């Protein structure tokens, strides 16, 4: 029998070829992991925009400082005919300061009327007369909100058509249309970017007194978890126990804004309505320098009631027994315009001073407990003077708080400045001014109040 021997051989690559193959495999794996990482990172950073919107201009004096403290801007939809009517409405001076801070002022129609109940002509009048007044006040007005979130068959087209010779609204916000607790199942988690219908922007339900911080946070988190988008928050009154169910406490709103600040790392940013409509979706710009004056009418220029010949949002105050004269000077101030002169000609006790109005809920600047503030103003005086400060409690009671050291008498303009200690826990607002506690003459101008950084 013939025996055949079969030899089987396997040709292994040389050592150099093995290294090349392993290197190739490693590169492929690294590339695949990089793709997965980019996809996951993109998903994690899907942009979510939050717009803080404030309707009706009622009980919203606290909004300014809360927004400033968190480096945020809001959109304030106001009925122009109600501005300056007195509490609880915003004053014109407050609206001017909000606008100067970079907040957006939007229209809400004359009289807060239900547009769906009006004729086309009446709707246009209510919308355009409101816009005309806001424009006359010097505001750029681009955004509108429907009172009661109510529209008729032609309302959206009337808003979109604009106001000839005045301007055109680029958007209009409703209320509702996004998912809410116990309602609107199946609705979107967020408005799309850009919105599908710019003249009917959807929101979650209005914030009410029973809306918890967790619910407000949930609106944002659900949007983040479902691919991002736009979450306009609808706020009316900012107050504790102010008799309206459409309200949020300042403490809850402050906590929400603090939480929102930390969401920037997740790609969530706060933008005004106009900023979103303009396509401003990216990270926010650096915060402004700490140079925003918290006072209303700080240079004493505004006086809408010339009969009393007294600067708006300021009051001439004092206690004890003395003979004195107040004069509103037109010229001769630290800067061109008005200044305030106080002359004490006889004194037995007490003092006299000009301070932010303590009889108004909208004039004295809102403060945050635990924060410090820098108070200042320019003065001339023939005797030493100083700054005296008061704070308002949550019960609405004004208390004496602090007095600075003396500022020397001076015949030329000098700036007196005083940094407060931390604000008491129960303080909600602050009022201060220069005082005279002896016979002499004091002229003041250009006051300022800054949050200490």
From TrEMBL:
<dbReference type="InterPro" id="IPR011330">
    <property type="entry name" value="Glyco_hydro/deAcase_b/a-brl"/>
</dbReference>
<dbReference type="InterPro" id="IPR002509">
    <property type="entry name" value="NODB_dom"/>
</dbReference>
<keyword id="KW-1133">Transmembrane helix</keyword>
<dbReference type="GO" id="GO:0005576">
    <property type="term" value="C:extracellular region"/>
</dbReference>
<keyword id="KW-0812">Transmembrane</keyword>
<dbReference type="InterPro" id="IPR051398">
    <property type="entry name" value="Polysacch_Deacetylase"/>
</dbReference>
<protein>
    <submittedName>
        <fullName>Polysaccharide deacetylase</fullName>
    </submittedName>
</protein>
<dbReference type="GO" id="GO:0005975">
    <property type="term" value="P:carbohydrate metabolic process"/>
</dbReference>
<dbReference type="GO" id="GO:0016810">
    <property type="term" value="F:hydrolase activity, acting on carbon-nitrogen (but not peptide) bonds"/>
</dbReference>
<feature type="domain" description="NodB homology">
    <location>
        <begin position="48"/>
        <end position="158"/>
    </location>
</feature>
<dbReference type="Pfam" id="PF01522">
    <property type="entry name" value="Polysacc_deac_1"/>
</dbReference>
<keyword id="KW-0732">Signal</keyword>
<keyword id="KW-0472">Membrane</keyword>
<feature type="transmembrane region" description="Helical">
    <location>
        <begin position="20"/>
        <end position="39"/>
    </location>
</feature>
């Amino acid at each position: 029998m013939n025996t055949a021997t079969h030899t089987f051989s396997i040709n292994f690559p040389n050592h150099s070829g093995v290294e090349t193959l392993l290197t190739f495999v490693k590169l492929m794996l690294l590339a695949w992991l990089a793709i997965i990482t980019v996809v996951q990172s993109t998903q994690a950073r899907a942009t979510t925009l939050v717009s803080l919107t404030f309707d009706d201009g009622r009980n919203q004096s606290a909004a300014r400082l809360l927004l400033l403290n968190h480096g945020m801007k809001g959109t304030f939809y106001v009925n122009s005919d109600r501005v300056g009517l007195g509490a609880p409405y915003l004053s014109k001076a407050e609206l001017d300061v909000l606008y100067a801070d970079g907040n957006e002022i939007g229209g809400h129609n004359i009289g807060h009327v239900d547009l769906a109940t009006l004729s086309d002509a009446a709707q246009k009048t209510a919308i355009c007369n409101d816009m005309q007044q806001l424009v006359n006040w010097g505001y750029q007005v681009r955004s509108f909100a429907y009172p009661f979130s109510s529209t008729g068959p032609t309302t959206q087209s009337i808003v979109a058509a604009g106001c000839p010779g005045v301007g055109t609204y680029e958007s209009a916000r409703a209320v509702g249309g996004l998912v809410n607790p116990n309602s609107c199942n199946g609705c979107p988690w967020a408005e799309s970017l850009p919105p599908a219908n710019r003249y009917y922007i959807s929101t979650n339900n209005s914030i009410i007194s029973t809306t918890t911080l967790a619910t407000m946070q949930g609106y944002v988190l659900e949007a983040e978890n479902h691919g991002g988008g736009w979450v306009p928050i609808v706020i009316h009154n900012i107050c504790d126990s102010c008799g309206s169910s459409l309200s949020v406490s300042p403490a809850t709103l402050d906590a929400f804004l603090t939480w929102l600040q930390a969401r920037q790392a997740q790609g969530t940013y706060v933008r005004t309505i106009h900023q979103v409509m303009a396509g401003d979706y990216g990270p926010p710009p650096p915060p402004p320098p700490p140079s925003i004056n918290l006072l209303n009418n700080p240079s004493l220029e505004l006086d809408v009631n010339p009969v009393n010949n007294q600067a708006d949002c300021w009051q001439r105050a004092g206690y004890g027994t003395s003979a004195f004269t107040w004069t509103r000077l037109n010229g001769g101030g630290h800067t061109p315009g008005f200044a305030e002169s106080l002359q004490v000609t006889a004194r037995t006790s007490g003092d006299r001073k000009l301070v932010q109005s303590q009889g108004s809920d909208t004039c004295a600047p809102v403060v945050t407990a635990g924060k410090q503030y820098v108070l200042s103003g320019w003065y001339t005086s023939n005797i030493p003077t100083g700054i005296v400060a008061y704070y308002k409690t949550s019960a609405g009671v004004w208390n004496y708080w602090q007095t600075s050291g003396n500022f020397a008498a001076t015949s030329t303009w000098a700036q007196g400045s005083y940094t407060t200690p931390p604000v008491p826990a129960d303080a909600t607002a602050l009022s201060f001014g220069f005082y005279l506690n002896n016979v002499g003459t004091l002229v003041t101008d250009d006051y300022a109040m800054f949050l200490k950084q």
